[in-house]
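Hi R.,

Here's the chain you asked about this morning:
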Amino acid sequence: MVERVLVPMDDSELSERALRYALDVHRDADVTVLHVVGEPSRMMGAATGIALSEDREETIRELSADVLDRAREIAAEYDATVDAEIEVGSPARRILDRAEAFDAIVMGTHGGSLADRLLVGNVAKTVFQRSPVPVTVVR
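And the predicted structure, written out as tokens:
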């Protein structure tokens, strides 16, 4: 039985579909939404703001607020609640670092803009190939 489900989310429609799927299929499970904010680099504009901010933690919370608020709204539609967590770094790496604490991962096939997918790589593929727990990929 699946008791704990990890749902990585960004601001894409596909990650919202993944959360809906997790809430529908794993009705009795504890669902944790994980939003990963990219590390600052010359190629990641929004994350660069983290390095330049005076209050790094507050900036990370602000960058994550819309995604996590949307996750809570979706959960409310299912009369459920979700735990919301934020990580900073490479999305695939952060998801895989957390995987063993869960029974399953449910995630969208891809997310973000085309530029994000080209620069960051295919997060879903990496997680699917390396996860120690079952992964459901939602389209």
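Residues 4-36+66-138 form a domain with the Rossmann fold fold (CATH 3.40.50.620).

Let me know if you need anything else.
M.
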